[in-house]
Specification:
Layout lengths: L3 H4 L18 E5 L7 E7 L5 E6 L6 H11 L8 E4 L8 H7 L12 E4 L3 H8 L3 H4 L3 H10 L7 E2 L3 H5 L9 E6 L5 H11 L5 E4 L8 E5 H7 L17 E8 L17 E2 L4 H5 L3 H12 L5 E7 L4 E7 L3 E6 L2 E7 L6 E4 L6 E8 L2 E9 L1
Parallel strand pairs: 3-4, 4-7, 7-8, 8-11
Antiparallel strand pairs: 1-2, 2-3, 5-6, 5-10, 9-10, 12-13, 13-16, 14-15, 14-17, 17-18
Helix pairs in contact: 2-3, 3-8, 4-6
Length: 368
Amino acid sequence: MFAPHVAGGGQAHAPELSSKNDEKLAATVISTQLSGTLAALRVDAPGGPFGYLRIFAFDVRHRAFIRELLRLIPLLPERGLVIDVRSNPGGYIVAAEAALQLFTPMPIEPTKYSVLATPFTRALADGPLAEDLGPWKKSLHDAVRNGELYSQAIPLTPSKTANEIGQQYGGPVLLVADSTTYSSGDLFSAGFVDNNIGPFLCVGSATGAGGANVWNYDEIRAALEASAEPLRTLPDGIGLSFAYRRATRSGPNEGKPIEDVGNEGTPHELTLDDLLHGNRDLLAHCISELRKLPFSKRNAGIDEADRTVTVETDGLDRLDVFFDGHPGSTYELTSGVPVMVAYPQGTKQVSLTGFDDDEVRQRRTIRL
């Protein structure tokens, strides 16, 4: 689908022999505790330094995965961050979707899932798979009666989980994926774009287009073993898998499927320097795009004895303060000039929202 010249016998062209840029990039490794899953770098380049975060897979359960990201993020330069999910085969859906909140001040809307509406899927929801398909049961009944093709679309990642921590990295963020980014990697890419976190570069026409939950034949057979329609045992060595709940996107792409479609981004064609010298041109391309994005930052220091929070900002013109969810005060900001915020006795959390020309750039919650 995405490389028709291959199937048609056409000749692929070799990438450019020379680098597209003459920038000197130097990288320093930031050690991670999940080295098989994450890699982090500090990249020294003009206008930087910049951060680079490679997510090889979402193969760690979400709490451990998020915990390591929370440890790494303060170590990454704040001028801008490249997140690279190329060749990410997927893993835990909640880990992928819960990570998005760390890189944006805005609430995350998770991907939604729907089930093909047939008498068979309705029977599964009524009986052997009632627990797994419970949230879709009523809409499956309605859809079969009304002739709808799919059930209601419902998120697998709870909205609370997708938003319980909030923004941790305040600089501009850019995502890179490719045609071998798959499954939860597809979901992360779609969520990144649909929640308007930052630009998206894609090596190839689109991501791998694996946006669905998968059952294998043995799982379905075990579930139906005591039902009126048991499945036969397959010959040794034979297996089947089924995409049974399809993912659909949110935000500006509401309802658009990921399965068999993928996520398109701004294309980047790999060069020979990318292949032989650690993605040198790709990284330079990413950094050049990050430089174009607005930069802001917000640092806060707490003095619990005086019940004050000292806030230093750059690239922001207004700060709104909330105490335990209630409106507090608004401050006009000047870059480099700190603001001292006094909070009432008994306050459990102070929320700080920074604006640049009425656009939210920074949002943090300080728990006291």
